[in-house]
Amino acid sequence: TWKWVVGPMFLYLCERLVRFWRSQQKVVITKVVIHPFKTIELQMMKKGFKMEVGQYIFVKCPAVSKLEWHPFTLTSAPEEDYFSIHVRIVGDWTEGLFNACGCDKQEFQEAWKLPKIAVDGPFGTASEDVFSYETVMLVGAGIGVTPFASVLKSVWYKYCHDATNLKLKKIYFYWLCRDTHAFEWFADLLQSLEAQMQERNNADFLSYNIYLTGWDETQATHFVVHHEEEKDVITGLKQKTLYGRPNWENEFKTIAEQHPGSRIGVFLCGPEGLADTLNKQSISNSEADPRGVHFIFNKENF
């Protein structure tokens, strides 16, 4: 038995030593941004840190807990001179981090008062393959939109620098969310992308659909009154928010008709139930002919 146990235990100890070594490396919090709906953004710097789009890191804050490590998806782009995460306050640990960063106080917080942070990573995910396709479908559910913040930022940087060398030609972006407040922190990024693409006369590069899956009667009445306005009443974007859930069968068929003979990457960050639905649609809408359209499904679950 010991022959079978010794190898895995040795690898496990090596992994723990590497994580301990990484946790001792200095991480500097350069900026803390409070977004609506109790979401904070931590912008950090670390010597030798290199990332790709959609990757995630483990974070430990000794001021909150000396043992707990929590995974967070990176929301910055590799082209930026810092790396960032968005943390939604939903539990004891995130609440402790919120308070440790001084976000519960009204006065300005000095940088030297910010807590020490240990970072392990980054680690790879399926989202890294986004730039391997000419056409992609990005589907985020709720806070699962975070890896696509990194993707969309990187696409924007690459597009502004040299669009001719970018293999990715078309993005279909879907975001499903239950609450209107959750749209607010991400809408700014979409607004900047929308404006930049229009300035460069390529507004068709990014097609996005935002779905609000939960609302009450008062909200519905407010949406109807402002429906005719140029910009959406929730997000401030020209693309109006849709209500309910997408008809995935129609979406897949429409995209297949517009891109015949293509390999289309489908990327999801969301719950397992939605993953099953998209996987089935990817299979059923892919053609048997190798020269036909094929949907390649990739997922991250939370």
TrEMBL record:
GO CC field: monoatomic ion channel complex; NADPH oxidase complex
Origin: domain of life: Eukaryota
Oxidoreductase found in the keyword field: yes
Reaction(s) catalysed (UniProt annotation): NADPH + 2 O2 = 2 superoxide + NADP(+) + H(+)
Membrane topology, record value: Multi-pass membrane protein
A molecular-function term among this protein's GO annotations: superoxide-generating NAD(P)H oxidase activity
Cofactors named for this entry: FAD
InterPro entries membership: Cyt_b245_heavy_chain (IPR000778), FAD-bd_8 (IPR013112), FAD-bd_FR_type (IPR017927), Fe_red_NAD-bd_6 (IPR013121), FNR_nucleotide-bd (IPR039261), RBOH/FRE (IPR050369), Riboflavin_synthase-like_b-brl (IPR017938)
Reported function: Catalytic subunit of the phagocyte NADPH oxidase complex that mediates the transfer of electrons from cytosolic NADPH to O2 to produce the superoxide anion (O2(-)). In the activated complex, electrons are first transferred from NADPH to flavin adenine dinucleotide (FAD) and subsequently transferred via two heme molecules to molecular oxygen, producing superoxide through an outer-sphere reaction.
Protein name in the entry: NADPH oxidase 2
Organism annotation: Tachuris rubrigastra
